Amino acid sequence: MTEKIVGMITSYPGLNQSDWLWQQTPYSFGKWGNIRIQANHPQPDFLLLYQFDFWKPVKKLSWKGRLKQTFKPKPPEPDIREKFRGVPKDQIIYLLREPPLDEVVGNHKRNYEIAKQYCGYVSGPDDLAPTPDYMPAIWYHSNGFRELNEMNSPEKVRPCSWITSGVSRTENHRKRLDFLKDLQSKNGEIDFYGRGLPTWVKASGELKNKWYGMAPYYYNLAIENYADNDWYVSEKLWDSLLAWCLPIYYGGPAADRLLPPGSFLRLPSLDEQGVSYIQEVISSPDAWFEAQAAIAEARQIILHKLNLLNWLSEFSEEFNL
């Protein structure tokens, strides 16, 4: 079977590097099955538009800003198809990965409508998408695929960690920060990591490699920004399990359909009940020991089945190129 090249464009800053996703395969240069992912290949067989924004809101200026603005003729917009490197429509894949939060759902609708004009497959983790579906898995550990695939559990020396951020631009983000404040005030056994955290957080700092903030811990808090549909589940859960943590997970029902029973614990709510639940679980490593077989099974599902490279390989097999 002829190898097929998958290119990629995205609106995520800094993600167009040549080796994007190469850590998610045991083979060289992004090979998996019958595909090879090379983000910047000039003539790929398939093109992945990964969280690509066709439409962006215009920044509103204050009245003072409008007075200072110099009006110049706006150059014509380049044909968007120039970005697609000659790939036919039915071989262009659009995957939107962000949750449909109230504050951004309008942007999602616009992106889906435009994507249908240029892409043969348009999907996202919400019912607004032409093809609603779970997000294929990516992860944010720097470990190689073979290491993750073959390793036993690393030594566990601390009860629980939470890697999060100080983002507060949506109501859901603010709710998560309120829960963090409540949790921190009542439990000293959790280590917090992340970028842009408020000064009141007793944080251990930002991590370049999430492995170091997960692997030494029995438990990890995996708290989604969105938990209100049947599709959304993010790398928060994959990262936790690949580090052999038992995730204490807050999210929608998608995880139950994708992973084996017992491979994660359900956080009931982001309130006092949730705080009490976490305190009870992390007081002992017993639940982690009981979940070892389920965690091992879940890790293999993430690495081999849910893996975005595996998804792309299976998608490409439908074409006789």
From TrEMBL:
<protein>
    <recommendedName>
        <fullName>Fucosyltransferase C-terminal domain-containing protein</fullName>
    </recommendedName>
</protein>
<keyword id="KW-0808">Transferase</keyword>
<comment type="similarity">
    <text>Belongs to the glycosyltransferase 10 family.</text>
</comment>
<dbReference type="GO" id="GO:0016020">
    <property type="term" value="C:membrane"/>
</dbReference>
<dbReference type="GO" id="GO:0046920">
    <property type="term" value="F:alpha-(1-&gt;3)-fucosyltransferase activity"/>
</dbReference>
<keyword id="KW-0328">Glycosyltransferase</keyword>
<dbReference type="InterPro" id="IPR055270">
    <property type="entry name" value="Glyco_tran_10_C"/>
</dbReference>
<dbReference type="InterPro" id="IPR038577">
    <property type="entry name" value="GT10-like_C_sf"/>
</dbReference>
<dbReference type="InterPro" id="IPR001503">
    <property type="entry name" value="Glyco_trans_10"/>
</dbReference>
<dbReference type="Pfam" id="PF00852">
    <property type="entry name" value="Glyco_transf_10"/>
</dbReference>
<feature type="domain" description="Fucosyltransferase C-terminal">
    <location>
        <begin position="160"/>
        <end position="269"/>
    </location>
</feature>
